[in-house]
């Protein structure tokens, strides 16, 4: 879902941006610093935005923070339109509410994933 209809963006040095960059930007606007972002950026083995994004999702699942973290990123409609094309479910209020509802249900599941 995070990659579906994501606009292609590039960093200053030409590296392709991915949903990891969207999550970092969205969380930075809402909080001082997210523990998951701090943890993922400390992992030297992760070289790509996709790898960092996957590690962040695993971290959030283990720590039961995925719904809250994603919700913080989805609060700004202007930022969503900057990162996603119109077909993204994140741009539909109904789909966004359904996705977040399901993710909040996941908070009740215990995940044991290698971080």
Automatic annotation (TrEMBL):
GO cellular component: autophagosome; late endosome; lysosome
Ranges where the RUN domain occurs: 1-115
Source organism, top-level taxon: Eukaryota
Spans traversing the lipid bilayer: none
Gene3D superfamilies xref list: 1.20.58.900
Cited Pfam families: RUN
Gene Ontology annotations of biological process type: plus-end-directed vesicle transport along microtubule; positive regulation of autophagosome maturation
Name assigned to this protein: RUFY4 protein
